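My main concern about presentation is that the manuscript never shows what a single data entry looks like. In essence, backbone conformation is discretised, so a fold becomes a row of integers matching the chain in length. An entry of this sort, consisting of the sequence and the corresponding backbone structure tokens, reads as follows:
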Amino acid sequence: MTRRAIGLLIFLWVLLVYGCSLNVIWAADHPTSLLQLAYAFWANHSPVLVRTGPGFPGTVDDFFYNGNYYSALAPGVAVLAQPFVALGFVLDGGFNLFGNAMLLSELFVAVCNAVAAYLVFRLASMYFAEKTSVFIAFAYAFSTISWPFATYFFESDVSAMLDVLAVYLAIRIGRGGPSRFADSVFCGAALGAALTVDYLNALLVPIVSVFLLYTFRKSLSSFTRGFAGFIAASALGVLLIALYNKAAFGDPFLTTEQAYQQTSSLFGAFSYPILDGLYLDLFSPLRGVFVFCPILILGAIGFYFVPKRRELVNEAALLAACFVGILIPYAMWYNPVGGEAFGQRFLIPVIPFLLLPSGFLIESKRGAAAVAYLLYGVGVVFNGIAGVTTAIPQQEAVSHFPFLTQVLPLFLKGRLDTWWWREAGAAWWAPSLLIIATALALPWATSHLLGSRDPAEAGWTPDGGGYERNRLK
């Protein structure tokens, strides 16, 4: 199988599992506001939310400003999802929160995160053998909180797809040379689109810029054209947000978040004690990514095992900088818990960058692969059960683990949120266990399908304890 064929297989399997997990029961504030905004774009070509019935707005993510209702959320997802939600609005004959548009909006997110899993595989393939790269891709898809949120209309998984694409292209540019003008433009376009989905993704633009400039520091003159294309394409995202702000509020510099909070500065939202926020996001039972996604422990350790070659160290620094660049501001966010959620959804877009270095550990230490699969299985159980139950358990104390206090009890009672739940009746447990078992078995089954191939056949050459991808042609 070619690398593209393996990637396509990953995409299809991930999409199938996600498709069987889509929610039709719960409508949280966040997805409701996004769907309202998508409907406003479709029905009136306007950012002003359409009044859809008594009790409007009915969500904490909507707000009243100068006589109109608006969504506080970044508009990118509502725009990108139009091919899916517009079909739902047509089938529903208008806005119906629990109609076809809801299911199709979730399908859009599922497709995006399946693409993200494919991109994680392609990124991992730059460093590791086929089987390790496949494992890392499935680990992102099924052993992290990206799975539960792939079943709801949230922006996190869409943001992850765009962020991974941008970093993949940045590394490919660095390895391929300054002549990769098209890659530079697409890399900037990915980040430009990403910042329309989540404003904080704008922080990745300077991070990737520093990486590219440092990589080509000895040949800046030959990279000038490529860097200009990167900056221009990423700036397009800023321009689109400015145009949206102008259409909504008459001021290109007034963001939805500022209007929502009624503040004059973006920086006023970053007021939470940073150490408390770091504990919350990384280690707490309520939101800690190392608790909900234990496979990430190996990713963090894996940075230590990066081969001491300059280009690999630089690329590992890029991965670390992207993760930390989003972690720190969200640790200081005024509402760090983020409402009802299964884990810290704010960090989903950069989870792949923390996960990827686990491959260096897996391929350099005896027994690490077995530990990785064990941690993978624990994460699949946590996130698979949440995937078919709910990604939005009610907010609790920081010392509580929602999987044990809410999600698992709901699952054991057979109270799921999937589109097939009611039809399954008393046999709900059979498809549920089949979905989770499929996710558990896919890394092993795919590795078995690949067989015991010589890594050189796929373009990998031995390098110390692991494999390093040959320089891209």
